[in-house]
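Narrative summary of target 7.
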Amino acid sequence: MKCLCLVILLWCALARALDRTAEEGARALLQEYHKIAAVYYNNGTIKAWAYYTNITEYNRKAKEEASLINRKMKEKWNLKSKQYWRADLSPKTKRMMKMAFPAQLGEEDSKNLTSVSSNMTSIYSTGTVCLTPERCLNLDPGLEEIMANSRNYQELQDVWEKWRTNVSRKIRPSYLQYIELVNKEAVLNDYNDHGEEQRMKYESETFEEDMVRLYHEVEPLYRLIHSYVRKKLRMVYPQINAMGPLPACVLGDMWGRFWINIYPLLVPYPDQPDIDVTHTMLDQNYTVDQMFRMGDEFFTSMGLKPLLDTFWSRSMLERPQDGREIVCHPTAWDFYDGKDFRIKMCTEINFENLGTIHHELGHVQYFMQYAHLPLTYRDGANPGFHEAIGELMTMSMSTPQHLAKVGLLKEIPENPEMSINFLLRTALHSVMTLPFHLVNDLWCWKAFRGDYHLEEYNTRFWELKEQYLGVVAPVPRTAEDLDPTAIFHISNGYDMIRYFTRTILQFQFLEKLCEAAGHEGPLHTCDFYGSKEAGDLLAKTLSMGSSMPWQDVLELMTGERHMNSRALLHYFRPLQEWLIEDNIRNQDGVGWGDSWTILSGDNGSSTAHGSFVCIMIAMYIIYYW
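Modeled conformation, tokenized:
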């Protein structure tokens, strides 16, 4: 008996020693990997930057070669890490190992995926639409300016259709290959498909259901704004049905993503000062450099990090005038050496671009704040965090209060009409994107897991668009089309749920930063510019990167562990109340098609109105009490 006990004790001691040895070995492996991988990441990013800022065959091949080298490097380290997969590692080390060492496709499949991805990027970035044989336009700025400013329905419809014929229809074969390859890689990493792999970045088994539930919380507000927009647009476009969905070509951009460009057609109180201060910027002779300096000063006013000299010398802040093909989509870049952070943007002198600058600088600030962390942790707590910080800055700098501080508005009108104008404009940039971003990824996830037959891909996409957004294609679509790929993110392999989660998170963040700044008054009047207290809270959150599960980082920032719509609904409550009154007064109804119902002001005598009011009351009880 004594011998048996001694054997057991020796075995336990040996197991503990082996666990300690495994833990130390795994940590040493990670430490070595981070030093070596940073060099590879930096080289790959340099080659990608060269390609995106100068699309040539030489740069494409160099970018693809660097991508393949990085894949081989990752596969090598994945093989090295396998000796520790069954070891009893600490939860922190196990999490880091999973993040750092994903399995990679084999050499042939890796080459194919790299080639397919480059092909989609090239088609998208060089795509043009010829309005006449002599007038062929790129997306930015030519086609985007038409979609933003034209009020000619036929022109909008033609440009919308031709972009999809010339670009997304050509991307379709490559995207179908892309689905096959990324699914294959996801299976290597123990996921059922690539969609599950994307969702698990949020470390939640119920993420898809949670996002749909979150949207339904905000849906009544979305439908009220949709109804108001429909009423106003019918004054310009008689083609729109008073009880139907909206055609996708009249919403202010190529995709119906941000509705901000149609705000001049929608403004509730046109006699109030214009919130879009583009004219003031032009009158004051703003320059692109001045716009970026203003953005930098927004962050430093809060005690956050200033932009480095390399940012100013290496970024591409304006479209080059030497005729080269580039990717104009605004993006912020981390070169993984802790000192090189850039922005690529074809900046125009307008208020929308000023907001975009603050957004992209939010990414750069995040890069700088977590640059001290190991390479694996140099990312947002989840993908939505990165986007939320950028949008948070755009939202704060867009308030009339802030615009007055920086000399772009002469005064701050203290009246409800100005507030309604501002809230509607803000909602067009935030609330109205929620179902757009949700639907794009719901469609992708269903495509990745094989829920659709190949010939019905596009049909199912537009069914989701009509169901969630109340938006339809303005011209008939066919099985040859693949309209989801008409937007940069899908054609370049990015998920879009990050933009859905960012919209929810940015209002949760805003509420807490405003508390830290000592703000008093309605949430939508908060501007935390200049608040060191808000800056300290923000820096503490950003500096964590992805070193902790995002729920822990969210709790650090807000005291809450879950994404919820309470702060968003609180922010827009004055607008929601105004829209209900306006809708009832004008008998506009809400919804589209079979879901269209009319609201009534007769003490809730209408069943539709009674149901709607019950929803509003229930939401207020849940979120405000």
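The longest helix spans residues 2-52.
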